[in-house]
Amino acid sequence: MNELLTTIYDEYNRYIYHLCLKLTRNQNEAEDLMQEVWVKVVRYEESVSKVDHVKAWLTTITMNTFRDRYRKNVRRSKYMMNQPEQLDVPILDLVPNNDFTTEELVEKTEITKIVQEKMAQLDSIYQKTLWYFYVDQFSLAEISELMKVSIGTVKSRLFRAKARLKEILLSDNGVAEAVLA
Length: 181
Fold this sequence. Notes:
mainly alpha; Rna Polymerase Sigma Factor, Chain: A; 2 domains; 9 helices; globular
């Protein structure tokens, strides 16, 4: 393993483990998932040097590996284990379609648009803090470095931004009804 991968492993190993643990809620499965993630990282070793945000890249690999693993387990347990020896229909017809329905896509799009409109009402410092934390998935330390403030200040801004956004969302009766329904 090259020096860059060793550095990345040393820096992000605990983060990846805790993310895996959060996703799987099981120590053994988290360790297995983490191992799969690091195998993929080593496999795509040549891509590592081209990555701008290593933490976001590792998070994406972890999330995708978890989703793939989950889907594989669901398919196996739901459709393969309880199958009769002979089927009258092709096996692929039994695999569920994980795509969103049109209604779910419209609802997701509308909610995203509403949240973005309400976020625009926040002060820019709060907008940036929320964006960095939830969209770019930066750590508190990374945000504090980017914004040139202490971690405590980032935590305070994040807390105030979420509280203010909630207040703005719930003050709009149409949005409050949609959210609470």
